[in-house]
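Progress against Task 2.4 (sequence-to-structure conversion) is shown through the following example record, which the project officer requested during the mid-term review.
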Amino acid sequence: MTADGSLTADGPLTAREPMTDPGQAHAAARAIAAAALGRDPGPMDTAASGSHHVYVGSDAVVKLIDATSHARLNREIALAPHLPAYLTAPLLDSGTHRMDTGDVRYACYARVPGAAPGMGMPGVDAATARALAEEAVERLGRLHAWVPGGRADRTLRETLDHGGFTGRAAFLAGIEGLTDHDRHGTVPSHLLDGLRAIAHDAPPHGRTVVPVHADCHWDNWLAHGRSVTALLDFEWARFGDPVDDWFFLIRFSGPHMETVLDVVARATGTSPDTLRAGCEVREATHLAADLRVALERPEVHARMAADRLRSLEELIVGRYWWRDAR
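Structure tokens generated for the chain above:
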């Protein structure tokens, strides 16, 4: 649940496709921004991303990915014009750009003021954390109340292997799949038993009743002072349950976890224990899915496997969602 996998700024198990010449990628981003703005975009800096090449200028942001890589950027592009007003950055242009090393897909967005609070909200004081959480909950409420039609509805209904909770039977099957792939006993039996216990108490079915962002941790928000300015990266958006979003917002608030949980509970009229239980199920599902993939290719995902095991220990043994419950 850190910089290399599912619960990060780039969603489940993504890896940025290398481009042969980073200089060409930077030049392409400048050309794309210039065409969208109708003028020279000025300096554009490289931004950290685990799944794209991202370049940020004073007025535009360009996301690039190899045209043969995953198509989730197309999902974001399809949704952008239809999302509720003032929820995300305006899309200026999108399409395919030819480079010597091959075609890239791109999306060019207007630069929105602010910076990401960051995973764990480092350096954020308690009052600011509460204010940001209140605004984030309000924005997510607008997303959850949105009734998409036409292309947006079809896009949100497309099959997406998101690794999240879909129901008790699928969760249990995922745990058994993890066990089958764990040929060397990497996952201790007490952690597998803990996952099964959470799964047995999970709802029979996951709801798919509202549009959800499904990756709305604090690296995917922009904030200025104590105000939220935008929610970014809709590549994992789908129909789901509001708690699919509340989980990301709460879990990645670092020392402000209890504050953000309280904000969500008050704003949505949900009991704190109901929120804790729903979030625990979602974290357990994501961890089981990530560990299975990591064990399928241990030579590629060794660091991710170690990270997920630490998180699973915290979840099961440390009772993360319940340790501060009153």
